[in-house]
Amino acid sequence: MTRIAVIGAGISGLATAYAIEQQALSAGLTVETRVFEKDSRSGGKIWSIHEDGFICEWGPNGFLDNKPMTLDLCRQLGVDNLLLRSDDNARKRFIYSGQELHRLPENGPSFLKSGLISWPGKLRLAGEMLIPKRKDQGDETLAEFGRRRLGSEALDKLIAPMVSGIFAGDPETMSLKSCFPRIYELEQQYGGLLKAMLKLAKQKRAEQKAGKVVASAAGPGGVLTSFNGGIQDLTNAAAAALQGELLLGCTISELVPKDGGFILTAAGGEQYDAEIVVTAAPAFAVAAMLERSCGAAAELLKEIPYATMNVVCFGYERERIERDLDGFGYLIPKAEGKSILGTLWDSSIFPNRAPAGKVLLRSMMGGATNPAAIELSEEEVKSKTMTDLRQIMGITCEPEFVRIFRHRHAIPQYTRGHAARVGAIRERLATMPELILTGNAFGGVGLNDCVNAANQAAATVIERVRKRSG
């Protein structure tokens, strides 16, 4: 019997523990898993809050179905029949610029007609075909990449809002290779983004003819997918499927290696033994656990910053909003000077997010470019959000439903040098091969990324168990 501890019961920890149990069963190995979670509930930042007929997502609202890992997990958990795809109209995305909402263009003709980018900016974008491939292999920031290949206007109106929407990040500090490795690969493989788009266009048309759903150029690949009761249905199912023990309200404060394993010390003084440990907690929490046993790794883990975020849910009577809500929502370039980063039209994305005759809007405030927003009072957050919604969407009435969620450590930031930093952390921990790191602080912040990393962590655990059993 190999005792395995998983620290953290967000999607990363739950998926890891479940995968360990399933892989061990298939391999005929005997393991005992124990999952530790500091909060009184499992799920981490995945939390679907049901109040007054509204379903408010505290954190992410779904996953993209263009990669198999989360869909596979749903099938294994037996909840794939409960999946809910976003409305087709939700693929309409907007950018607020020049005091109006511009739909992101989906093809060449719509791009030419769009007023989002000026004609000089469009010509600069077209000139991307002539920009040579970057030969320097150093870690370029997203802003440096954007200015070099696409121009400053495209950076400000397209790239920066996208970065704030996905990472709540600042393109001036974020690493291209770590945040968008595929974009880096496209330039290296095809010599540029437009060249890559042209060469991949035939493949896209073939997929469309085959009946596959292909997202427009305006949005990410795949279709946003959730559940009728919210994305928390996934973490609830994963927690319920665990064979081992799930300890809620148990904070692991220290992790110390011993002969043949580890001693885990909880904040209350309780101690637990394990032969193998997987940490799926935030980087700063793992740093605190390793302060005594591996200070060098702890210091590097502390260097992974996190963006703050206020999530603001407003519910309205539908008839009191004159604007068409046919779409996903919008993002706002920093130059527009607004308090919020953007607003999702949640009740247009998925059905039943609001009671009949009502709508739910979810705005994001803060991020790496506005960290002070986390210190605002609830009344200030509400007032600033209402001001922006009035100016952008013409909403003059008070919301009848208001919920504000605060995240002091919302999303890890993959700043310049992130990949090298993660590599150095793993090198420092090489003397503790039975300690395995996973979670969104290292190799991807999306739900698919977390599940993929969980599967990889579980495979490593099973390899270690085999060696111990061997």
Describe the structure.
37% of the residues lie in helices and 23% in strands. It has 470 residues and is α/β, with parallel strands linked by helices. It folds into 3 domains: 170 residues, 3-Layer(bba) Sandwich (FAD/NAD(P)-binding domain), CATH 3.50.50.60; 125 residues, Protoporphyrinogen oxidase, mitochondrial, domain 2 (Polyamine Oxidase, Chain A, domain 2); 109 residues, protoporphyrinogen ix oxidase, domain 3 (Orthogonal Bundle), CATH 1.10.3110.10. The strands form 5 sheets. Strands 8-7-16-17-18-15-19 form a 7-stranded mixed beta sheet. A 5-stranded parallel beta sheet has the order 10-2-1-14-20, covered by helices on one side. It has a 3-stranded antiparallel beta sheet with strand order 5-9-6. It starts with a strand and ends with a helix.
Q: What key phrases describe this protein's structure?
A:
16 helices; single chain; protoporphyrinogen ix oxidase, domain 3; FAD/NAD(P)-binding domain; Polyamine Oxidase, Chain A, domain 2; 3 domains; 470 residues; alpha/beta
* Individual helix count: 16
Unreliable stretches (pLDDT < 50, length at least 5) are 214-219
Give the overall form: globular
Please state the structural category: alpha/beta
Largest sheet: 7 strands, mixed
What CATH architecture of the largest domain do you see? 3-Layer(bba) Sandwich
Beta percentage is: 15-25%
Total discrete domains: 3
Average per-residue pLDDT, rounded, comes to 94
CATH-assigned fold name of the largest domain: FAD/NAD(P)-binding domain
